[in-house]
Please model this.
Amino acid sequence: MTTPKAASRSASLTVPPPVLEISGLCVDYGLGADAVRAVHDVDLTLRRGEVLGLAGESGSGKSTLAYAVTRLLSPPGVITGGDVRYHPRGGEPVDVLAMTARELRAFRWQEVSIVFQGAMNSLNPVHTVHTQLTDVLKAHRPDMPRAGRTEQARELLSLVGISPDRLGAYPHQLSGGMRQRVMIAMALALQPDVVIMDEPTTALDVVMQRQILRQLVRLREELDFSVVFITHDISLLIEFSDRIAIMYGGRVVEQAGAAEIYRDPRHPYSAGLLHSFPALHGPRRELTGIPGSPPDLRAMPSGCAFHPRCPKAFAPCDRKTPPLAPADSSSGRSVACWLNDDHRPGEA
Ligand SMILES: Nc1ncnc2c1ncn2[C@@H]1O[C@H](COP(=O)(O)OP(=O)(O)OP(=O)(O)O)[C@@H](O)[C@H]1O
Model:
């Protein structure tokens, strides 16, 4: 791209400033007595330049969270509480939940773009890659001359590792991996600060998945954007994220650096997830999976929602929900598990 955002991320150990701050976010499906809570009191901060991984089994609330944060949630989904703040470069924080429709149109694509599950099938089959890439530019940069749009589209394709010669191709003339890269190119077209990727590569084979993610992480360094990367495959997150948040039953149950989660998962659910996917590198782990199934939102277990499946459940777990609390004073890790809480209720 011609004017990449400053690629000079500080190599110092200072914590980068936040770009997206989510606090106390609650999302329900339905209203009144029939409502179920799919996202429960989530606090999460995405920092500038980082890749934040969001993991959890199907139904844990990952996509609902992404839709809510970008205000793309459609009925019966309703945001019932909390706060989402976007911190523009050098500007005052903006309340995303209070944005008007017009503000939202500018916010999406330009500040935060999102690549959804199965995105590679959402390219329009009757238009060329050129038309689809330049349409994004035309809609948001109406003053850009036609030749400039084409030039930018060529650069975007090169960025994601596709020869600009393919600009005239229709989606069916491209492989699944290439279509996915085109979607990523579209998401990067307006140089957003944040790219949210919801299971972007699950339809691809493992080698292609990793190739695309490696490229994305390289681009993140070049173009200086932050990534929220959502998947149920925690081994992918360990490889590509800086930090990981693990969701269960709509709540974040553990949040820590990717290496910390890998070496020493503190929540029994995190440990279970780690033993559900083969790691590509490092020592082999025995794959044991997690017994049982994720909870039904209409009948959530009392206390910690994971307790019926937890090999380490003890007295307080079925009675009281553990808060997400700092686990180490130094590392910024937090865990919602009574095993890690010095202030746990009586075990009798
Ligand atoms: N339109 C809807 N109406 C009612 N409940 C819904 C709706 N969409 C999602 N849910 C429920 O909300 C919960 C969270 O779903 P969500 O899709 O956010 O989970 P997820 O972690 O992204 O799962 P997956 O990995 O399968 O996409 C699930 O229990 C799901 O059944």
Residues 1-12 have pLDDT under 50 and may be disordered. Residues 303 and 319 are 4 Å apart (CA to CA). The chain has two domains: 18-111+192-290, 123-190.
